[in-house]
Specification:
Strand content: 15-25%
CATH class of the largest domain: Alpha Beta
Number of helices: 12
CATH architecture of the largest domain: 3-Layer(aba) Sandwich
Strand order of the largest sheet: 4-3-5-6-7-8-9-14-13
Number of domains: 2
Distance between the termini: 51 Å
CATH topology of the largest domain: Rossmann fold
Largest sheet: 9 strands, mixed
Bound molecules: adenosine monophosphate, zinc ion
Radius of gyration: 22 Å
Oligomer: single chain
């Protein structure tokens, strides 16, 4: 089903008109209510009156993560703190964390877009959903919770962790939908097998997986493991949390709810708009958010976009799976490497497990070294050394031909690489540059 027929299937020109009206209002709103934005817009040499249609968005300055960090905690808010009904804090790896807040209307917006997302994945009112994203300061758990409430689902608010208990709950209560990170779903499958359960016999028919990058190959793996439809959900705390974009069952890109989150894709080299189908950095403007609206926020996520109509009937643009981030891209000997490229290779090779970690190091005076640690099947690990070496070489050759950079491959026993109940840690950078 389509949750909001009107907004999700609107003709292109009608959508543009709504976006134009909303952009005009939000620019005036932040200019009048947020001193940091007043200054930013003034410094850019424009006035809110210069913004009349959605195409004028290009006249606006970008907002970057550092703007949020520099104005920590509340400097980019457009509402007094007491108007905020909920606050989330996402831990940054460096510097200050990012604080975001929701007014009552923002919480309604969040419920609305998450209801759209769950419906887009195939959920219908009356379904039972197991929410195994973390509840708390991370936006995943509560975002799904609000959307499921809005839709009229039966919610099992498991949060992440306590994996054996999750599996017992699934077996006994038989929820139809699972929501968690893709890596956690595979970790759950390992535990299930250990408990003597057959993952393919599970009650889950639909998975809504996101919060971390995962490849097409990983989708196949998850779908085969659990015998379910695995769909991709995208979002980030700064914009709203989960609910920015969601794949429908066509699985041909994530519908971005562009009547409220206006997307642009910016070419990394030229800084200009990338053409549809070409990769670039996703930039989002929140068109209706009140607590902390952001203009042209540079997400650091790399995607491509298409405006073609989807067979599901939705007319919203679709973004590709996240191809990487401008900041988790590692540069090894001058070559850009995204963990997703390596994941893709690993999952196409028989005998490897979808658990891997990249370790980059540079010994004094030497070149960067990229080591790919990858788990192999139990059976292969107990094979002769000769076979292991052959597999190692095969993986190395394929990665080197994709990346164009030399790598070391280390095969490790099953369960060597730390598991995560939330976002998986794929890169360990030991270089002190
Ligand atoms: P957070 O604000 O902690 O929820 O983190 C948001 C970031 O998680 C995004 O900017 C993306 O880099 C990543 N992310 C979220 N959803 C996805 C997804 N479906 N695929 C890939 N990366 C994702
Ligand atoms: Zn669709």
């Amino acid at each position: 089903m389509i949750w909001n027929e009107k907004m999700e299937t609107m003709a292109a020109q009608d959508l543009k008109n709504i976006q134009s009206d909303r952009l005009k209002s939000i620019v005036k709103y932040v200019y009048d209510n947020c001193p940091a934005y007043t200054k930013k817009i003034d410094n850019h040499g424009i006035k809110p009156a210069d913004i009349n249609t959605i195409d004028d968005i290009k006249k606006l300055p970008f907002t970057i993560k550092e703007d949020l960090r520099d104005s920590y905690p509340f400097g980019l808010f457009s509402q007094p703190i007491k108007q905020l009904k909920e606050i989330h804090v996402s831990s940054g790896t460096t510097g200050n964390p990012t604080v975001v807040g929701y007014t009552k209307d923002d919480l309604k917006l969040w419920s609305e877009v998450m209801a759209r997302a769950i419906a887009c994945a195939g959920g219908v009112p009356g379904d039972m959903i197991q929410i195994a994203y973390g509840y708390g300061l991370f936006t995943g758990g509560l975002g799904f919770h609000y959307g499921a409430l809005e839709m009229g689902l039966t919610i099992i608010p498991c949060s992440s962790g306590q994996t054996k208990r999750q599996l017992k709950i699934m077996t006994d209560l038989k929820p139809r939908i699972l929501a968690c990170t893709p890596s956690y779903s595979l970790y759950m499958a390992e535990e299930a097998r250990e408990m003597g359960l057959n993952p393919r016999a599970s009650s889950w028919e639909i998975g809504i997986f996101g919060a971390e990058p995962w490849s097409e190959a990983m989708r196949k793996e998850i779908e085969a493991t659990w015998d379910m439809e695995a769909t991709d959900v995208f979002g980030m705390s700064e914009i709203i949390g989960p609910g920015v974009a969601q794949e429908c069952l066509q699985k041909n890109g994530m519908h971005i709810f562009s009547d409220v989150f206006y997307p642009e894709v910016i070419d990394l080299q030229t800084g200009k708009e990338a053409r549809p189908g070409e990769s670039g950095e996703l930039v989002i403007t929140t068109l209706t958010k009140q607590g902390i609206p952001l203009l042209r926020y540079k997400t650091r996520d790399i995607v491509s976009i298409t405006y073609e109509k989807c067979a599901c009937g939705r007319t919203s643009p679709r973004i590709s799976k996240i191809k990487g981030r401008t900041d988790d891209m590692i540069i090894v000997r001058g070559i850009n490497v995204f963990p997703s490229q390596i994941e893709h290779v690993l999952l196409s090779i028989e005998g490897t497990q979808p658990h891997y970690q990249l370790v980059v190091d540079r010994k004094t005076g030497e070149l960067d070294e990229l080591e790919v640690m990858v788990e192999v099947d139990e059976k292969i690990f107990s094979d002769e050394v000769k076979k292991l070496r052959a597999l190692e070489e095969k993986i190395r050759d394929e990665i080197e031909s994709v990346l164009g950079v030399m790598v070391k491959v280390r095969l490790v026993e099953p369960k060597t690489i730390p598991r995560s109940e939330g976002k998986a840690k794929r890169v360990v950078d030991k270089r002190t540059l």
